[in-house]
Design a protein that fits this description.
It is built from six helices and two strands; from the N terminus they run H-H-H-H-H-E-E-H. With 175 residues, the chain is mainly alpha-helical.
Length: 175
Amino acid sequence: MDDKQLVRDLNNTIANWINNLEKYSSTQFLAKPSANSWSVGQVYMHIISATIYFIKQVNICVANNDNADMECSPSAKAMFANNEFPDAVLDGPPGNAFTPQPVDKADVLKRLEALKNKISKTGAAITANAFKGKTKHLGLGYFNAVQWFQFAEMHLRHHERQRSRLDAFLKENNI
């Protein structure tokens, strides 16, 4: 997959999240199925903060050749080859338990639009890049800049499944 296609795919997936944002009332956006689960708004906050982190990793990778000889794990290689996360509910890092509720939908929209701009700028850096650096994902080994971009887009699509489960909860409970 070429670098420009990765940028388009990531921006298109974020556009999908933006388009879906409109369908939620404020009550729906903040409703949680249980004390230990996220609201739709918290899913949005998570995908924004995670994607910002992934883009930071891309910027590190394009600035040096550190860890160029390191590899990602076999499970990461399979994910990249399939271009998707496994179809399963995954436990994220412990910090995910502290994902805040958003201020409001307008703030989330502003953050998503800023993220799209950041992605476009970072995508240009990948295309012009001569470095082959890699940074470590906590559970999946070392990723290069292109892999981080692909991972970011796959992560967004993975959370679309979670958003669908939350949509079903909202519908079933007439929220």
